[in-house]
């Protein structure tokens, strides 16, 4: 049953991407890198993102994050959208969200002969808020807080740089 849910979700995301592609082909696409901390996993992460405007204030921000957990691996793939709040200042605020897929692979405890790796794929939803600095510059630093609502809810604090 869980596999069917993942397949249906992947198909829905593919259909959404199909309708977004014509607009993205004409839009400016920025690249970014990010790092920070996942509170529940108690580990740091590194990630990469792209950012493109859909309208003047709506942005499409897909990203991938690898979390450095001690006993396995955790990777998230996120399809986020956010809305920039008008500030007319050297910084910008945004609020957003989007679907997430969490790939967990936990190693068995040391010395356990009958234990196998635990691999889980979980679907979630991101809620995020951030502040970016120097919004019209070629290099733009930002800070973002995110909550991933899933089977194992995570609070994430991230710092990043976006490049034109």
Task: Report on the architecture of this protein.
This protein is an alpha+beta fold. The protein has one domain: Porin (Beta Barrel), CATH 2.40.160.20. The protein contains one helix and eight strands. The N and C termini lie far apart (43 Å).
Summarize the structure.
This protein has 164 residues and is of the alpha+beta class. Helices cover 15% and strands 60% of the residues.
Task: Name a few traits of the molecule.
164 residues; 8 strands; elongated; Porin; alpha+beta; 8-stranded antiparallel β-barrel
**Can you count the helices?**
1
Strand content: over 45%
According to DSSP, the number of beta strands is 8
CATH topology: Porin
Integer count of domains: 1
Structural class: alpha+beta
- Quote the average pLDDT: 85
Widest sheet: strand order?
A: 1-2-3-4-5-6-7-8
Query: Which of globular, elongated, flat, extended, rod-shaped describes the shape?
Result: elongated
Task: Give helix % range.
Answer: 10-25%
Order of helices and strands: HEEEEEEEE
Poorly predicted residue ranges: none
Topology of this structure?
Blueprint: H1 2-26, E1 29-38, E2 43-53, E3 58-67, E4 72-85, E5 91-106, E6 118-133, E7 139-149, E8 154-163
């Amino acid at each position: 049953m869980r596999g069917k849910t993942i397949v249906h979700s992947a198909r829905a995301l593919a259909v959404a991407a199909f309708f977004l592609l014509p607009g993205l082909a004409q839009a400016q696409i920025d690249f970014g890198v990010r790092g920070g901390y996942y509170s529940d996993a108690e580990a740091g992460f590194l990630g990469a993102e792209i950012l493109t405007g859909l309208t003047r204030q709506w942005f499409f921000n897909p990203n991938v994050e690898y979390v450095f957990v001690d006993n396995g691996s955790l990777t998230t793939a996120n399809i986020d959208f956010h809305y920039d709040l008008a500030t007319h200042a050297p910084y910008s605020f945004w609020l957003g969200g989007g679907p997430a897929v969490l790939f967990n692979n936990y190693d068995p405890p040391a010395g356990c002969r009958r234990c196998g790796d635990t691999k889980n794929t979980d679907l979630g939803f991101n809620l995020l808020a951030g502040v970016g600095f120097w919004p019209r510059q070629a290099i733009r630093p930002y800070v973002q807080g995110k909550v991933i609502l899933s089977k194992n809810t995570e609070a994430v604090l991230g710092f990043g740089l976006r490049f034109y």
